[in-house]
UniProtKB/TrEMBL annotation:
SUPFAM superfamilies: P-loop containing nucleoside triphosphate hydrolases (SSF52540). Residues 12-253 form the ABC transporter domain. Keywords: ATP-binding, Cell membrane, Membrane, Nucleotide-binding, Transport. This is ABC transporter ATP-binding protein. Pfam families: ABC_tran, BCA_ABC_TP_C. InterPro entries: AAA+_ATPase, ABC_AA/LPS_Transport, ABC_transporter-like_ATP-bd, BCA_ABC_TP_C, P-loop_NTPase. One of its GO terms (molecular function) is ATP binding. Transmembrane segments: none annotated. It comes from the Bacteria.
Amino acid sequence: MTPPASHGRPLLSAHALTRRFGALAAVADISLALHLDQIHAVIGTNGAGKSTLINLLSGELPASSGTVQLDGRDITRWSQPRRARAGLGRSYQRNNIFLPLSVRENCRLSAQSHAQQPWRLWESARRCPHSTRRADEAMERAGLAVVANQPAASLSHGQKRQLEVAMCLATQPRVLLLDEPLAGMGPEESERMLALLRELRRGHAILLVEHDMDAVFAVAGCITVMVNGCVLASGTPDEVRRNPDVQAAYLGEH
Ligand SMILES: Nc1ncnc2c1ncn2[C@@H]1O[C@H](COP(=O)(O)OP(=O)(O)OP(=O)(O)O)[C@@H](O)[C@H]1O
C-alpha cells in the first residue's frame, strides 16, 4: 500500500531498518517517513517492535542494518545526545520525571541538559535565563503553566504524561517520538492529550506509538501497522481501516 502523499522531503526517515536480538528480528527491514505537520502513528500488537523502532530512531539502540536520515543527513551512526541536539525529541513509556522537583524545574533541567553547557545543569534557575524561558514556553504549550511551581509528585497521572511531553518540548525538537502518551489515562485526560497532540502537529513531525485505537484514528494522518517486526500495512487511516490483512490480523471493529 502506498503511503499517503506528503509534500516535500521527509524530516525523518528510516530505510530498511533492522534490529536483531540474537535470532529475533525485533525490527525487520522497516522503511518509513515522517513529515513536518503530520502525525504518523505506529500501531501493532504487544511485542510487534514499536518501542524498538522508536529506540532505533532516537539513537538509544544501534541498528543491526539499515539507515536513518534527518533532514536528508545520514544520522545512523549518531549517538542519542547528538540526535537530540539536532532536533529529535522523545518521550518515554516509563516515568522520566524527578518527582520532588517542581514542574518548572523538571522542564528547565530538560532544557538545560540539551543546551551546549550541560555541566551547568545544577546551577540555579536565575543563572540560566535561556533554559528557564524555554521551560516556561514548553509548560505553556503543554497546558501546565498553572501548576508550574507544584512538585511533580503532586500531579495527576495525566498531568505527569503532559509533563513528559513538556520536558521533550523544552529541548525544542523538530521531531517528536512519543511512546504511548495516552497510557493509563482516563477519558478526560486523553482528550486533553489529544488536543495537545493536534496543537503540536503544526511545526513538528510526530511519530506516535499508541495502543488506543480511537485516539490513533482520530489524530493520525498516516498509520503504519507492525506485526512481528515487519510492516503489515501503511497508509491513511481509511486505507488502513479497509485493508483486509489489517482487519484479519489486528483491527477487528476499527
Ligand atoms: N533488549 C532486548 N533484548 C532482547 N529482546 C528484546 C529486547 N528489547 C525488545 N526485545 C524483544 O523484541 C520484540 C519487540 O519488542 P518491543 O518492546 O519493541 O515491542 P512493542 O511493540 O513495543 O511491544 P509493547 O506494545 O508491548 O510495548 C519483543 O519480542 C521483545 O521481547
